[in-house]
Write a structure and sequence with these properties.
By secondary structure, the chain is mainly alpha-helical. Helices cover about 60% and strands about 5% of the residues. It contains 27 helices and seven strands.
Amino acid sequence: MPRRALRLHLQHLKEECGEPLHISMSNGKTREKIEDKYKWDLSVLYASNNHWEEDYRKLEGGLSHLLTFKGTLADARKLEQFMQVYIGHSVTRENLYVYANARFYEDTRSAVYEDMKGRIELLASKISAETVFIKKELSSLSLEDIDAMIRENTQLAGYRFFLQSYARYHSHILSEETETVLAELEIVLGKPDDIFSAYNNNNISFDTFEHNGEKIPLSHATYSKLLESHDRALRQKAFDYYYRPFRQNIDVLANTYATSVLANIKLAKVRNYPSMLEMALFPDYLPATVVSNLVEVAKENIDVISEFNGLKQKALGIEELHFYDNYVPLVKDVDKKFPYEEAIELVRTALAPLGAAYIKRYDATVHARVIDVLESPGKRSGAFSWGSYASRGLIFLNYTEKFSDVSTFAHEFGHCLHRDYSIEKQPYIYCQNPIFLAEIASTFNEALLFDHMSKIVKSSEEKKFFLYHSMKRIEATFFRQTMFANFEKDIHEMAESGKVLMAKSITEVYRKNLETYLGKGMVIDEQLNYEWARIPHFYTAFYVYKYATSLSAAIALSERVISGEKGAVEDYLAFLGAGSHKEPLEILKDAGVDLTGKKAYEVTVNKFRKLLKEYKSL
């Protein structure tokens, strides 16, 4: 998973976007005292830092070899030679990148790994800037050129889709000089994101407030916890104080966000795209209707959110439902600890419908020491799955024996085996799972886990817990992320039409989206108008819709498997091994899900309605 996508994935594991990662300190055991079986073994990448340094020097020196192919990629024989060198160079770069970052995440206080991480990031940026000729030359090949080269040299046949994916960029690739400048400006163009992150993660200052004679310190992390409190006055105060620094700095945050939006629009115009949205969708071969259909289905079914609001209001016994009431648990959490070994067995049983071959791979992965399980001082918080062609899937956890940790384990295992299947079935150039598809396998695993848990519960209260959790997931991922995507679409279209982006205009657009998506029965307080100013995802334009499309695809796929539909398991396993060897929408169609229409999104909404009906019947 690319670095920015990984960061956003980590962020999205929180139900509310915007809560930053923090350093985990709760376990008490230092990393050295944790048993090896609970730590990943990165020797599959490098046996030591010295070996990493050797590869770093090879990568650095190998750049000159890549540059010798400049001006030759239209030659069928030279192109074959180039592809072999290019793939070897890319595999090494990936290994270096993953190892340095993974080591740094083990203990973010390590100056050694922070330095290694920084060095490989800078080298990767340099390589990108100096090899823009690759993009230029390959994009200049027409489909006819590619066919002719393959006839001349049949060894190129396996690269057909790879070459065609470059050819389609022909009208969007600029002169080599311009491409070099844009590559060098990549860090600069990403600065609005860095500025926002610096403010939101390091420099934001929340006031301490008093409640019932107690001083309450506020932070991103404590805010999320306070919103789950059954003390409504406490929730309301936390909500008010949380948004104060965003409101106080709204002009600065508006200018920061506007800079990001305007840079996106200018880049889209320079690259000859009709709009920023179409530029964002282009790498995944997606038509704009994928987003417009998603938005339409969500808007057409807001009544189910209104009904859900009514359920929450009645359960809480309040006259008005405010946004600060939205995260109070209506059902007690499962009052049980789940030791890690028990979680392994629980998830294994939940995934059993996928068949013996999948479970065999699951067992092998569990015992392969690719999972970093426990918290330790300095370890980055959160969870993710990442890896390289050499390491395959790696899983990073901070396991604390809560049921949410079991769910996270299932989620990350979905990512891990998605990567493993793709690496096994595809050559290196096609083994990466497109970001558009990357969240499907993880969400699919969660769906199977919650279906399994709802069937083995021992009380109606436990059943209500799993039903409610599933509804909240659809509310947060389908409806809320679609609202974010709709806001992004509105803002970019507003800027593209020549209107000025400033705090007032951005906030007005966000307010309209809140009124559309939060449903009847939800009071929208003024503080919530400024929520847009705290969402990090907006600095990676048109990313959030992928959470909603992925959830929809995962629910559609899991419903096929759970119902025992003939061929569903085989279709799903084929999806896991598809990598990026064809267009993402075609890969999904092969698995039985069509995201070009509205049906898959309607399956998600109908699932929500079914869960809500079942919950009310208990």
